[in-house]
Predict the 3D structure of the following.
Amino acid sequence: MRGHHLAAYNFGLHVDDYESPRVEGFRLRGPLNFEAASRAEGYVGRSGYDDVPGPESWGEKVYPRFIAGSGFDDAPSSLSLWADLESLMAFTYNGVHADALKYARNWNQKQAWPSLVLWWVPDGLRPVWADGAERLEYLHDNGPTPRAFTFKVAFCPDGNPLAIDRERVKARAAHNAAGQEDLLAAVKTLKA
């Protein structure tokens, strides 16, 4: 949307510690997913993680309240910016990331909260981790609104409902596929 970028935050809990063999498939796919995102049409950028090589962290890492009582002090989460909803959908449901989604139930606990929240930020601004955690909690508590929404119920920056352009999603996915063939081939060799 002109003058805005789409912010995306996701959060979940693994079935075991990050270094566990039970989540090895997730751990191995992480760098390939980040590389696929960086090659995707409409990708603007992502937060890195403190003490991990790569992009700088967008603020102190903060988690939603759903981590409380889990036994974990860290959890899989990401924070990124996209040009529009269709770009994020094309990346999420196709190629390297779609392959990871097929196996997510192997690595992640079933959860009672949304795994993803979306919202708009003005161009030139970037969200911080605390924004994502707060908006995910808001979405859980209030359902989709212009402040915090989902792919199924999306809004424009002006608060009006947003209809997804499915043809644009398909076109972006096709464009991305050409630039991800090597990554997808590598993912296919990994443990699920």
